[in-house]
Each structure stands twice: as C-alpha cells, then as structure tokens.
Amino acid sequence: MNRRTFLNWGTAGIAALCAGVAVSLAAVVRFLTPSVFYEPPQMFKIGNAADFSFGPPTFLAEEKIFVFRDREKGFAIASAVCTHLGCTVGYFQTDGRFHCPCHGSVFGADGKVEHGPAPRPLEWFEVTLARDGQLSVDKDRVVPAAYRLMV
Ligand code: FES
C-alpha cells in the first residue's frame, strides 16, 4: 500500500465515522423529543354576542360546540361530542334534541341521555364575557345545564 492509497482509505474511514456519529446523534435527539399530541386550546373566543341569533343553536364545527342564545335566559354552550365514542351529535330543531348519527344515542334539550348507548349526558361549558366584549368559552370548566350568561 502506497502513501496515497493509505490516505484515501483514511479519509473515507473518517468520513464514515463522522456519518455514523451524526446518525447516532440524530437518533438520540429523536429519542429525547417527546412524542405528544397537542390539543387545541380549551379556552377560546367565539365572537361577539351580536354574531349569534336567537332561536336554534349555532353549531361551531371547529370547536364542536353548540351556542344557544335565548332572549330571556342568555347564552349557553353545549358540547357536540357524544359521550359514547365521541361522534359529533346533531341538534334537531324539530324535536329539540341532540341525535348521534353513529349509534343512535339521543340527548334531551338539557343534554341528558334519553336513549343509549351514551353513558353520560352532554357537557355544558362555561361562557363568559371577555374584556374585549367577545364571548369566551372554557371547555375545561363544565357547568350545569342550567348555567347561562346574560349579555
Ligand atoms: S358515538 Fe354516539 S352513540 Fe356511539
């Protein structure tokens, strides 16, 4: 082996060693980075009171909530997530109930289970008035179905 061949093999070996160390470091960094699913924020603003009409609830698909506005009682926020397996329920104005399309659960106007298999009533969330005048919903704060915000 002459000197040139020896240097070429040495350079290739060092390059292979550096590549191996880089791959190993990348694997370590990936291992140390937590694999978590980030939930959307549980507290969010949904707009001004005037954005919502009286009568049938407004369904906000992204937030999976129904916004009820009543002239005498005020605002109430109902979850649109079925307590059985998490399908999105629909509100039927004809009978004033929530119906789940997946397995047929029916919830009354107050969210109570009228027909299973849903094990628990729909949740109602706290709604407050933010400083900027918008309605703020906190999905971490479950309130009784009778809870209302008068604006
Ligand atoms: S997910 Fe609603 S009844 Fe099963």
Word description of this protein:
By secondary structure, the chain is α+β, with helices and mostly antiparallel strands. The protein folds into two domains: 1-36; 43-143, Rieske Iron-sulfur Protein (3-layer Sandwich). 20% of the residues lie in helices and 32% in strands. The protein contains one helix and ten strands; from the N terminus they run αββββββββββ. The strands form two sheets. A six-stranded antiparallel beta sheet has the order 1-10-9-4-3-2, with no helix packed on it. A four-stranded antiparallel beta sheet has the order 5-6-7-8, with no helix packed on it. A hairpin with a 4-residue loop joins strand 2 and strand 3 (65-70). The relative contact order is 0.15. The site of FE2/S2 (inorganic) cluster has 11 residues, from loops. The site of FE2/S2 (inorganic) cluster (FES) has 11 residues, from loops.
